[in-house]
Amino acid sequence: MRFRDRVDAGRHLAEVVQRADLGDGDVVVLGLPRGGVPVAFEVAQALGAPLDVIVVRKLGVPFQPELAMGAIGEEGVRVVNEEVLRSSALDMDDIEAVERRERVELERRAREYRGDRPRLELSGRCAVIVDDGIATGSTARAACQVARAHGAARVVLAVPVASRLAVLGLRDVCDEMLCVDVPEPFYAVGEWYRDFSQTTDEQVVERLRLAAGRDLHQAAPDPPDDDALGRDEEVGIPAGDVTLTGRLTVPARAIGTVIFAHGSGSSRHSPRNRYVANVLNQGGLATLLIDLLTVEEELDRSHVFDVRMLADRLGDATRWARRQPQVHGAIGFFGASTGAAAALWAAAQPDCDVTAVVSRGGRPDLAGPLLPAVTAPTLLIVGGCDEVVLELNREAQAALRCVNHLTIVPGATHLFEEPGALESVAELARDWFVRSFRQALPTPPRP
Fold first, then answer.
1. In Å, how far from its chain's centre is CA 408?
2. What whole-number distance in Å separates Cα of residue 137 and Cα of residue 334?
3. CATH fold of the domain at 6-212
4. How far apart are CA 85 and CA 82, in angstroms?
5. What is the pLDDT of residue 138?
6. In the chain, fewer beta carbons within 10 Å around the N or the C end?
7. Fold match between 6-212 and 226-440?
8. 3-class DSSP state for residue 253?
9. Neighbours of 106 (CB within 10 A)
């Protein structure tokens, strides 16, 4: 099968891993940087397991670097391929010379990805090693060997796609190998992704922070129990001549529903959007995370700024939500970046009947002429260090005629990456929606 991107691949892989035998011990998910980390993040989320990187360096034969005579991991771990050493007429002095050079780079990468967080302990645990795909498997082999050397009781290698040759060749270094697909013929990992753009170091760091609970998840609630959910599933939403994909989560006894309007290429899979949605779910609010653009439309960046089209589709999603038997009560919009402009544009339509709007780091100025027509109470949240967007929000606030408030999160930048920043956004949004929805409830008649 062909994956949309690494997030989509991770979600498919998570379904396979959840059905696998992971043993009786604790599970730790280990992503191979860089491309394996966003895939591993989705697996860790699904398993409710901690996430870490496994940083390894192959030790190449000096006169044939592509041939590995061993590998190293953190905290002095080294594994040696005795057969390669013998056939290459090398000894331990040779391997130590290569190791000294490679260990400097290994330690640099570990510090860059984790900061001051320690490596997660593997001793006695099940290590699920994840990459975005395997062609030859040399790095994956080294990772399995290093995890075993760190004391992992069980090693599971899990990837969305791999060559048949790699699958057969890696069975000796792991207890179980899991793949979503093993296609034939196989030429390269990237051919099985629509978007295989390079994962950056910053993206690796972000996901590790999210998973570690150092900032965004520091006080994050657990996902709702299954018994507390009335509905939690992927949905298709008709919008003109296309069908949009969304994720509808309805807690039992939800007092209203918040529809997310993502901005600037974000999606329903975004860890930030899902984090905020989770906080809203715990507050008794249903959420609909919807991709307002199709995969093909996302390739044309001009669609991201077509606020009228995005607003029309948001209106279609609102009407669809009202027809769902498990969706009750008021409806609100949570918009980010250009999605905030679409949310306000849609809220200004006479037939929309939206009860509240929250904008996170939004561009409400892009809905300029329609701002005075918005009647729903509107909360604008902006990072204190996001100076340009802050000024645009101040100008937009002056044009609003509805109940509104501008809240500045001190020290936060545009993406609210700082410790506690997104947590503040989620709590502010939850409180605004809950208060607005409750105020919209009909007043019971006096006896």
1. 25
2. 43
3. Rossmann fold (3.40.50)
4. 5
5. 78
6. C
7. yes
8. coil
9. 18
Of 284, 293, 239, 283, which is closest to residue 263 (Cα–Cα)?
293
DSSP per-residue codes, 271-334: HHHHHHHHHHHHTT-EEEEE-SS-HHHHTSGGGGG-HHHHHHHHHHHHHHHHTSTT--SEEEEE
- Quote the CA–CA distance of 55 and 416 in Å, as a whole number: 27
Report the CATH number of the 226-440 domain.
3.40.50.1820
Model confidence, pTM: 0.55
CB burial of 212-231 (b: ≥16 within 10 Å; e: otherwise) equals: bebbbbeebeebbeeeebbb
* SS3 assignment, position 257: strand
The secondary structure element, H or E, covering residue 46 is helix 36-47
Structure tokens at 319: 């009407």
Count of beta carbons in the 10 Å neighbourhood of residue 208? 22
Query: Which residues are within 8 A (CB) of 389 and not within 5 positions of it... i.e. 6 or more apart?
Result: 361, 362, 363, 382, 383, 414
Tokens of 192: 């099985």
Q: Quick one: which H or E segment has residue 396? A: helix 387-399
Task: For residue 381, give both structure tokens.
Answer: 């949240």
Residue 429, helix vs strand vs coil? helix
First to last CA, the chain: 63
Mean pLDDT in consecutive groups of 10 residues from the start of the chain, 447 residues: 90 92 84 93 90 88 78 83 82 86 88 88 93 87 89 95 91 93 90 90 87 49 48 85 89 90 68 85 91 76 82 94 88 93 94 92 92 96 94 96 95 86 92 91 58
- Angle, vertex CA 322, rays to CA 316 and CA 325, nearest 5: 135
